[in-house]
Amino acid sequence: MTQPTVSIRPHRVALTFVGALAALAVAFGLAACSAPTLAQDEVVGTWNVTDSNGTAMADMNEKGAYVLYQFNDDGTFSMISYMQDSSVQRDGTWEIDGETVLVDVPASESEVASGDGPIVSLSADAVEDATVTFEDGVLTAEGIGVGPVTAERIDEARYDEIVAHAASFAPQPVAVGEQVSTDNYTFTIDSLSYQDSILPSDTSGYYTYYADQPDSTYLVARVSYTNNASDYAVIGYATEAQFVVGGNNYQGSVELDGGTLFGRAYRLEAKQSGSAIIYAAIPDSVKDSPDVTLTWSLPDDASLMQTYYQSSFDTTDYEVTL
Known about the structure:
Elements: H1 9-27, E1 45-52, E2 55-56, H2 58-62, E3 65-71, E4 76-83, E5 86-97, E6 100-105, E7 108-112, E8 114-115, E9 121-124, E10 127-135, E11 138-145, E12 147-154, H3 156-167, E13 172-173, E14 179-181, E15 185-195, E16 216-227, H4 235-238, E17 240-245, E18 248-257, E19 262-263, E20 273-283, E21 292-299, E22 315-321
Parallel strand pairs: 13-22
Antiparallel strand pairs: 1-2, 1-3, 1-12, 3-4, 4-5, 5-6, 5-8, 6-10, 7-9, 10-11, 11-12, 14-15, 15-16, 16-20, 17-18, 17-21, 18-19, 18-20, 21-22
């Protein structure tokens, strides 16, 4: 009896076809995502970065700097950096890939900070297929920042606290004629105006002054200042001032009025009062701008009033508008 012949060619053709598809996928760089096993509600929400590349964020948080990640239920993703009273946001997408999440954010040539703080413009490379894992309310990411990142989930109340804390570092508005007083100092901005020249308080005899400059005018704040601390203060070196006129920044000089001349190095002894000027030469081409502010930064630690100002100091910033 003749045995029937069984052909296996169709099966071999099918295997060959599947193999060809796999080869094409590799050749064209195609990659299939794993079936989702991570629940969406484990991802969606706001996450506060607690550690970045091995550095704890606690000290930065105290100074009003935070980084938040937001995973929205529509698959959109946002990274928000709060830098005191300014913020920068970058937007992208996320998707679940098995037990991990893949994040993509387009490159950014210029991201301008929002808020009332200094104008900040940042550029950043694209984030492509950054891997994010979630376990017990802790996010761990590779490829989003420089090095590994750890973040904790926060609720809406904590989010509001973070935003409010960052905003609290905004300069305190001060009106001309308003007195400001702390344990370390008391001051009043007596006037803020443009002047062709700056004269000291005593012009009865010989004196020195700042003469008129071609193509520019002095923007001058006259200040009454009392050193409330128990040791001397050199406000000419220990504080920093900046004028913004029509969106242009001008470094201000702080000097005590010595009667017949001005000086940055003059000191006020404990409980002593004096007069000072804060000034900058402003080009005549911009001085008619309606947007004019003065920001004066004073260290919170009285001992730092005896040294040169550094941006790393904890300060209180005061803002006066012309």
